[in-house]
Fold these 3 entries.
Entry 1:
Amino acid sequence: MGGESGIRASPPLVLRLPALRAAAFRTLSQLAINYRRSPATAEGPHPPRRGPRAGDRLPDTPGGLHATTAAPGYHLLLCGPHDVWDTRRIEAATRGRDHLIHVHTLGTKVPWRGITHCLVRPDGYIAYRAGGTDLTGLVGYLERWLPLSAAAARTTRA
């Protein structure tokens, strides 16, 4: 019989119970890991009530949000109608760091409702998130965590 016992192996308990299966998936995929309490993450003014928060891993979307943020560097995601974002304000907010920050105007196919902006770190976690088009909080975050002197030093080494 070649060592066959005739007993069929059953799947592990974790795969048979939906709640345990979901918890195992979140753990293995690292979706359960967050940095919400890290000093390097910040919620700005008027953050959306729903959706991923600062410190959470950026989820993928049917539109391919992970593909959009795949290039190395930081990603500034501008969500909401395209016409609400003032190009001059965006350029002013990222000036001196434009070689480190990729700017994406995403429209409404995003994990948040309404007008939102967020900065995604190179590791795929949300560093900063706020509601509205006022980028003052973002600029403060960048000045603290990505100061112009460090940004300029990275340019000269590249």
Entry 2:
Amino acid sequence: MHKGYALILILPLLAAMFRIWACANVDGGARMSAWDCVVDQFFALTLYVFVGPFVGSLAAFLMAWLMAGTLPNPLALLIFLLFGYPIGAIPAIATGAIIGALKPWLWGARALTVSCAIGAVLSSILTLTGSRPGDLMDVAQFATFGAVAGLACAWIYFSAPSKGIN
């Protein structure tokens, strides 16, 4: 297993443990806090894994269009989507799980900023740990795709109506 994947998958677990520890006294116990955390993580993870790679692929397509200077073949978007989901799914799952775990402390612009930052960092970890030292442009591109996807997903996740007072 790639060492970047291990780091990406550990961070959601740490965020969940922090939420359970921080909210155990408020929610009425560790079991209730853990259940709330699992529910929030599941809904955020589901949204982020379906929307995040799609938005990241669109950002990659637009960046390729801007760098080429001419309009690429529209079927190239299918190729971007074909590679975007396998590459972007793991960082999207981890970003959604972290945002779901930190949901009680996120609102407004803070939620958008944190989701953008986490998406950028997690999307660039695989490129940073697996690339050559001189490939910082690739790292910056993947960070941009993750940031755009994180922003779009947070916009949807935090603007959706909820059943209670958050």
Entry 3:
Amino acid sequence: MYGKISPKNYFFVILTKNQYNSTMNKDLITKYGYEKIVKEFKDLLKEKSFWVKEKEIAAQLGDRSENAEYIAAKEQIRNCDKRLRFLDKIINNSEVVDISLIPHTKVNFGSKVVLEDLDTNEEKTFIIVGTFEVDINENKISNKSPFGRALLGKKIDEEFEFEINNKVYEYRVILIQEYNFE
């Protein structure tokens, strides 16, 4: 398993020293999240080429220092380049995990988890994803966040406490399943 995540349990991957050093700087990302980022990268390359053409056309209009179209196109190219560098780092420094290969009998990367808040009896749903896939509006939380780390490894019917900002919350795990990103 050279730098890949074990289908059985990605927490216990045996790595050589070189493999360990190369994967320590990598963030986990779902296959779905990776494909989404690659698509954004490709779309942004197309957008950048549009702005390069716009800049060339604007440059032909004369004095560049007072040319609003030229300055705007240059700014858009800069913005595209900045985002492309960011996305490139994600693409090249992430470990893509096929969550269908991971068991979801315990809370794991790519799991959808339904919890019961033992104080309010409310049900709360969370999806464990990589750092670059977090979306609070969809209850997607990072596997590296304090709450994400607290959830990992929990089983159905397991009760646990989570403390944050000097307040203790008590939860019980109701459901664990592989999240369907489609």
